[in-house]
Amino acid sequence: MRSGYFFTFGLVVSLLFHACKLNTGHQQEEWKVQLPERFNESDSTLRVSDSIRIVPQPWSHLISDSTLQALIQTSLEQNFTLREIWQKVEYNRAVHKMARGNIFPSISGNVNLSQRKFGLYTMDGAGNIATEILPNQLVPIHLPDYYSGLNTSWELDVWGKLSQQKKSAQARYFSSIEGKNLVTSSLVAEVAYLYFEFQALQDVLLKLERGIEVQEKTIEIITLQKASGQATELAVTQSQVQWLEFKSLKLETQKRINELEKALNILCGRIPQPIKKTNPLPPIPLNISWDIPSRLLENRPDIRMATWELKACHSDLASAKAALRPSFLLTANGGYQAFSGKLLFKSPQSIAYALVGGLSAPLINRSALKAQRKMADATYQQALLRYQNTWLQAYSETHYLLQNISLLQQQLVLKNQQVVTAERSMEIADQLFKNGKSNYLEVLTAQQHLLRAQLDEIQLLQSLQQSKILLYKALGGGWT
Predict the structure, then answer these.
(1) pLDDT above 80 for 434
(2) Is 290 found in the same domain as 152?
(3) E runs forming strands in 106-183
(4) Dihedral of CA 448/450/452/458: which sign?
(5) Is residue 152, in this structure, part of any structural domain at all?
(6) Predicted local distance difference test score (pLDDT) of residue 231
(7) Residue 78: inside a domain, yes or no?
(8) How confident is the model at residue 2 (pLDDT cuts 50, 70, 90)?
(9) What's the pLDDT tens digit per position in 237-265?
(10) Which domain holds residue 119?
(11) Per-residue confidence (pLDDT) for residue 383, from 0 to 100
(12) Are both 391 and 294 inside the same structural domain?
């Protein structure tokens, strides 16, 4: 008999702890992404500046334009997408609190009032009918039962399943915070990006209006010259063509300005209203250097978000593996119990308690738990690939932004020289025409070259400002 008992006990223990032989899983070493320490290491021909100060710094320190500051502040307070993300943060905060509470015992109060009747041909009924519940008082056939006490249950976190679930919930909470920071950073950059285009188009509009005024006066002069025989009909029609082209460009520019104004108001979460024109637009005080350490990318909310999501999936995988191990559960209850309300709180006679400890391990349903572990492992691998891809995209985005800014700065120097030359050419053509040494077609050509050079200069300044904003965002700025 004893040998059979010990054999059964040994078999059960062996089966239980066989479930514990699991691989501990992935090491965080595989999370590392190999990147150059500095952006200039990938191209030895690029120039390196002396100093760099880009991030972290609040967006309010980078942007001095009061109108743009007001737009960004309004968008951060009223943008509907950002307010929605805040609710996701609150949701994950609640999930984290719930997972943290699962580690501790649950305690609840309980008050019961019931009445029982056992069949007379049962063990309880036959025994009670001849048993005194009090001196000279038999157990009633209809037996009341009063109970008032506390119940508790506690799953011992021996293998770390619950603590890993808590870590997962905590990581997803932090990931949602970084998601909010990512939306904030994108919102600041988008408002600034659209605002620079809006202001640049205002400058374009002024150039076109001046061109239209000049062209109208020119048409009047050429018309008078035609009447006196000093000019031809061709000169008049060419001037009118250029005047109509300027008018068309002005309408197209006004249309785009309206679209930008609409987009900015939507980002600010408000009804349509005019946006103030700032002239001249203050430059972005951002020192650009190829000698930027790539570790600055750690400031990016998308990389932080991917990191926390990877940690959450890693904890999910550890929890799924721990679910294959035995579970230890303690349950207890204690309080006062009696068949009469008058006797309920009589101590110590009415005190009742129970304490139960249990151990269980998956035997039959292990295939379902193994499937859950494989699902968790696949989710972890997906998160790892997203994490590595996020780093790669962040590095590539910053690398090419630095290249674009360098090229834009070189273009702008050449374009400034072109504008100066075009202005001089316009003066010469106008003077020659007034002296009768050239026809008006040469004046029209000079005007077109000057206007095109001025518009291109405005476009390059806009692109440079926008690229600096995108670089500030790419290096993790904009969410503080």
Answers:
(1) no
(2) no
(3) 106-116, 132-134, 137-138, 143-156
(4) negative
(5) yes
(6) 74
(7) yes
(8) very low
(9) 888 888 999 999 999 999 999 999 999 99
(10) 104-156+327-360
(11) 92
(12) yes
Mean pLDDT of 220-249: 84
* CA 292/CA 53 separation, integer angstroms: 9
Contact 89, 180 (CB under 8 A): yes
How far is 46 from 38, CA to CA, in rounded Å? 12
Backbone angles phi and psi of 145, in degrees to 5: -145, 115
Beta strands in 45-198 (DSSP E): 106-116, 132-134, 137-138, 143-156
Tell me, what CATH number does 172's domain have? 1.20.1600.10
Q: Does residue 109 or residue 363 have the better pLDDT? A: 109
Cβ atoms 339, 114 nearer than 8 A: no
Other C-beta atoms within 10 Å of 446: how many?
22
Q: Give first-to-last CA distance, the chain, whole Å.
A: 74
Same domain for 118 and 261, yes or no, is: no
Contacts of 74 (CB under 8 A, 6+ apart): 268, 269, 270
Q: Are residues 353 and 365 in the same domain?
A: no
Same domain, 224 and 333: no
Residue 50 has pLDDT above 50, yes or no: no
* DSSP, residue by residue, 340-370: SGGGTT-TTTTEEEEEEEEEE--SSTHHHHH
Q: Check whether residue 112 and residue 57 sit in a common domain.
A: no
Q: Please, what sign has the CA dihedral across residues 73, 77, 81, 85?
A: positive
Q: How many domains does the chain divide into?
A: 2
